[in-house]
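Weekly structure sync, notes
Attendees: PL (lead), two postdocs, one rotation student
Agenda item 3: pending single-chain targets
PL asked that the sequence for the first pending target be pasted directly into the notes so everyone works from the same version. It is reproduced below exactly as submitted, 894 residues in total.
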Amino acid sequence: MRPYTHRFSIRWIACALLAFGLSISFAQDVAPTTSNHDSALSPTKEQYLNTTGAVRMMETVKLPRPRQAETTQTFRVGSLWKQLLASMGMTPDDLFVFVGTPYLSPEDQRDIQARRHYWLGQYYLEMEQPAQAVGEFRAALEERPDSIAIKTALADAYILARDYDRAQAVLTEVLSQETTNVEALIIKAHLAMSRAEEADGKERAKLLDEAVEAFEQAKQVQPKNLDVLRGLVQVYTAKRDIERVIQAYRDLVAANPKDTYSMFVLANILARTGKRAEARALYEKVIEQRRGFVNGYIYLGLLLEEMGETAEALETYKRALLIEPRNPQLQRVFESMLERMTRGKGRQAFLKEYAKFASEYPYSTEIQRLYADQLAKANDTQAALRQYQRVLELDPENVDALVAAAGLLAKAGKYEEASQYYAKAIELAPERSEIYDGMATTFMQVKDRKQAIAVLQKALQLNPKVPMLYVNIASLLQQEGKPEEAEKILEQGIEKLGEKAEFFIALGEIAERKNDLAKATTAIRKAYELAPSNQLLFGRLLGLLVRQERFSEVPELLKQAENTFRANLTEFYLLVAETFLSEGVLDRAAEYYEKVIEAAPDKLPGYGRLVQIYNVLDQHEKALAVIERAKKQFPDSEDVQRMLADTYLDAKEYAKAVEICRKLIEAKPKSLDGYRLLVDALNKANRYEEALAAVKEAEQQVGTTEETEALRAVALFQQKRYDQAAAIFTKLAEKKNKNADFYLYMLGSIYLEQKRFDQAEKMLRQAIERNPLNDSALNALGYMFAEQGRNLEEAKELIERALAINPNAGHILDSLGWVYFRMNKLEEALRYVQKAHRLMGDDPEILKHLGDIYNAMGKRAEAVEYWKRSLALDPTQADVKANLMASEKKKKQK
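Predicted structure, written out during the meeting:
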């Protein structure tokens, strides 16, 4: 409703016009004619909804238009005056109301008030504000207590407000007055369905039956009412009555033959229920009515394949590809079909089919490009380049073909030609930042960063308004060991394009690589201010603050972020917990994992993380308490049983761990997971023969397989029977199967234990060659070099690669710290080994390293403390004993 002051302005305008005797020509009659209470609603409905922005679609509600006194003239307002009124937020109807109000009878004034309350109520319904809607409809009823239309709308508002009892009472009253009121019957049915959502069992079934009955009654009155037919679809779907769902969709399609969506859904249901011929006819009709609807072709093609009509299916997919060649789902189903057709005939047969497709449509640029893409995937570079050239002959401005061809040329070492293609693509589509990313990636693949920088700089000259160009150039400069130049290019980006989050993220990464954490924090904080909804930025900022022990700044950041991410607190708590965990702040990590569990008690990973933390902190009672909580949520979970076994192992309660493993095996005797845990538990308890017996038991259950042989080899390795273990791992590695890198890594580990370093290096390098992502092999080789004090730069590179794969692995962090120790970079060494200690707790190797680092720093008291703690856990360490004796001797000499 408009501000009350507008009424006076309109009245003054109207009076002024009348006083000067201006003739007002009208394009429409706005003087309401005499009517009864069953008259159609005036145009005010549409005008009101347009003014408020509501879009609720309603049946025409019968409310009266105001009756004018017999002496009132009929005014007609021309288009010019309509525009004048509209500029003031008015309508001709407003002019009539405010000029004619003095002549309205009290009854007519009540009608107007009822109408206004009614449409305002409808607006609130559309805005899903049920309390306000109820208030407006009640106000309308005070003016028109007998209006069925208002009562029906009130019932609708009560349903939205979940006040079902009042809605039921209103509907009962309406239907007692008009038993065939379709709108009331529809609302009654929806009321029953709303109640059914909150019920179960017999009560739910009863309510759904009530909904069916109401819809069917409405259908008898109006057999083609689409709302009724759609309602029947919904309720029969809820009842899982597939035959009646099908019939309801058939009725819906019969009532509205142009409803291709319902036709498509019906076809899908028929196809799934074996009525393929009818489904096929409907799919074809959908395509006939909507030729651009690609899903129709996809589902028809899949159905034709099921019916064995392969040729027809293939043609259907081809027709669809001509319409939408870039549809990824369509491309997948087409390629899958070609693969099935050419199975066992090799890749060339597949390409031959694609070539046939391309030859059928020689002037379709996109089909030619799809064929070129397939040639590129098959690594037939020359043929792919020729085909892309064919595409560019048809369409010289095909950007995708230019970029793809450029990538192939760059891989072939033809950098200058590749640059020309990239430049042409950028000239045609300078806004497509993925082109620049593709350029950088391409040159990185050929390990030519200088050429990549040169090409990106050319691109920057062509289009200096793409932020990612500055970022990519800066990244490459950083990798080239030119951080100052990288910072300079980013500052240029800020100067030309303004402050953008991506610029400050890149500056933060450069500062972090230089170990300038304060500067990195400033940059990432600025990026987070520019993109406060970015959870990853929040996590990075929190991690930087924690790493610098700037804990006083953390509470305010957490408070701010919690408000920002309130819509999904579970993810927020998980992110905070993971960040604290990655920085080794285990007590705070535990606090937030508790919040994760509280917010989402039905998600298991939070329990697992919390158990791991408490075990690292040697707080096994707390770990067991968490496991008990997990059992209540997941009573039959194997993962919970594994948590329990791991906790008992960590607490050195081996008998209990063995008991849990036995239960896991009883539940799944054909699974090796339980046996792996059991063998580990028995070996840790020094029950070696029982461990080997468990391996034999596993072999009896599943047979002698690669997995059981590996299980035996691991068991022998744990028992330090290195020669026997090596013989098995060698045999397994020679088979060159998918796990060969693991077997080679284990051989390398055995040779390390035997101090056969040349053989260890050979095996570990082979493991990395087989699988460059084998972080264990990368770490082992790097640590071996560090221990020997050789190849320290390579050692650092190897361990950093391992850490990139497994960033929160304490043993890898310890290895990197040890490399820095060997390089005499003691501060860096201490930082990494301390973090490893926070993550892993008291491990004898890590404690020994801390002692060695403190000793090198001249902090003898701290060194002695850590050596003693290390020796207490592993009394066999001769070098630690020697260090302690030497330290004691120096102390006595003083």
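Discussion points:
- The beta strands are 28-29, 76-77.
- The chain is about 75% helix and 0% strand.
Action: rotation student to compare against the earlier draft before next sync.
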